[in-house]
Specification:
The chain is mainly α. The chain is globular and about 85 Å long.
């Protein structure tokens, strides 16, 4: 009996040990099953984060591309606007010049200009180490696509800068000279301004602000245009004080609408992303309001100071002035400030058109008044109206800050004015010295379109002739100053 009792307890002990063993094994197995589940959950979170980042990056790059398409379409606006505001005998040449602006700029900016504009630098420099032809990338490397998108967007801006001078010098520039000066602008004059500012050079190091290019693009192009118009000289028969009548105001109006439309790519696209809805909305609204107010201000100012007529040319001019003026600060100022900037730009453009005319410089489309003068104003306006929360800390004088930002903005404006003036003066003087800047007298006699291209814009209305053009006295007729290209 005693033996049986002992055997019972041994069996009970064995069963207990077995249960404990099985429990231990189950716990270990559960822990082993739980670990992969936790690891899978972590991996899923990481994968979701990477997917979201990839989607946002792709969205940002798609937006930049679309904005670049809009900016490139502005080339059509420049062409239509210029063609509408010059004489019919120069429209074919104007279209050819505008088209070649895009073509020449694309090649030269790809090979050299873009590399200079965004050269490597330690910051604060005047010139960096350029990477030519995008470093030879082919699209198979990681990150190549982002580089391609960045180049395309910046190329569209470079094309706009080169086109500004085309309108100012219209109807008398040698086509060979036009191709050469477009190449030089895309090669060095414009890219170096970009390097100083958007490329991280010395102006950027000072804290200079120009969100989308009032100075970088428009002021640079405006000063080149003024110097070019002065050196090439006025059109034959030009009577100062009586600007020539535009050939087609409907075409000029269409061109202005195209430019306004494209400007949303110019300004809103400069956010360089689609993630910040506040920035996208603010820039779009500021761009719109400045354009509207610029047109209204120029219309009324011209009405009360220039003979009591509602001048369509200056209405168009004023809208472009407002657009140029707000381009620098569109992401840094409030909508109310954008109205003020547009108002002043609309008045400035009328005044400067008169000043250039009084100085007897034949700016055929008022390019300096729109781009040069209003580009300077828009850049300085940041120093007055900038909101610190939008700039990252710098406040304008009228927004609670001191004069520091205004001084920085003025430094940039002066530096770019000097650079563009000196370099373009050298460029145009050399072209003039070698005989490829101005068309010969025969072109003035028969018209530049016939002389250069053997074509006219409307052969049924304006037949080609090898003799003097009928109606060339229209240079001294008309009342509307041309609008800025």
């Amino acid at each position: 009996m005693k033996y049986r009792h002992k055997r019972f307890w041994l069996r009970l002990l064995a069963i207990g040990i077995g249960v404990l063993f099985l429990a231990a094994m189950s716990t270990a197995s559960f822990a082993q099953d739980e670990a992969p589940a936790e690891e899978a959950a972590v991996e899923e979170v990481v994968e979701d984060a990477l997917t979201a980042e990839t989607v946002q990056t792709n969205l940002d790059q798609t937006w930049i591309l679309l904005a670049g398409f809009l900016v490139f379409f502005m080339q059509a606006g420049f062409a239509m606007l210029e063609g509408g505001f010059i004489r019919a005998t120069g429209v074919v040449n104007s279209m050819a010049e505008n088209f070649m602006d895009a073509a020449i700029t694309g090649i030269v900016f790809f090979l050299v200009g873009y590399g200079i504009a965004f050269a490597s630098t330690d910051g604060g420099g005047f010139f960096g180490t350029p990477v030519l032809a995008l470093g030879g990338i082919t699209g198979v490397g990681e990150g190549d696509g982002i580089t391609f998108v960045g180049f395309f967007f910046q190329f569209a801006f470079a094309g706009a800068a080169a086109t500004i001078a085309t309108g100012a010098m219209a109807e008398r520039t040698d086509f060979r000279g036009k191709i050469l000066y477009s190449a030089i602008i895309a090669l060095i004059i414009y890219p170096l301004v970009v390097f100083w500012t958007w490329g991280g050079g010395w102006l950027a190091a000072m804290g200079f602000l120009d969100f989308a290019g009032s100075t970088v693009v428009h002021q640079t192009g405006g000063f080149i245009a003024l110097v070019g118009a002065f050196i090439v000289g006025p059109r034959v028969g030009r009577v100062f004080g009586k600007p020539p009548a535009p050939s087609n105001l409907m075409l000029a109006t269409l061109g202005t609408f195209v430019l306004w439309f494209g400007w949303y790519g110019f300004n809103v696209g400069s956010t360089l992303g689609a993630s910040d809805v506040n920035a996208l909305g603010l820039v779009a609204v500021n761009t719109t309001l400045a354009a509207c107010m610029g047109a209204v201000a120029a219309m009324f100012f011209a009405y009360f100071t220039k003979g009591g007529k509602w001048d369509l040319g200056l209405i168009l001019n004023g809208s472009l002035a407002g657009l140029v003026g707000i381009t620098a600060g569109c992401a840094f100022v409030s909508p109310i400030s954008s109205l003020i900037i547009g108002l002043i730009a609309g008045i400035v453009v009328v005044l400067v058109v008169n000043i250039v005319e009084a100085a007897k410089i034949d700016d055929a489309v008022g390019a300096f008044a729109v781009h040069g003068a209003c580009g300077m104003w828009g850049t300085l306006a940041i120093g007055l109206f900038a909101i610190p929360e939008l700039t990252g800390g710098s406040a304008g004088l009228l927004a609670g800050g001191g004069v520091a930002q205004l001084i920085t903005q003025a430094t940039g404006v002066i530096a770019v004015a000097v650079w563009a003036t000196v370099t373009s003066a050298i460029m145009f003087s050399v072209l003039k010295a070698v005989g490829v800047l101005r068309m010969p007298a025969k072109a003035d006699e028969i018209g530049i379109d016939v002389y250069e291209h053997g074509a006219v814009v409307m052969p049924d209305l304006l037949p080609m002739t090898d003799g003097p053009i009928a109606g060339t006295d229209t240079l001294s007729k008309g009342t509307s100053p041309a609008v800025g290209d």
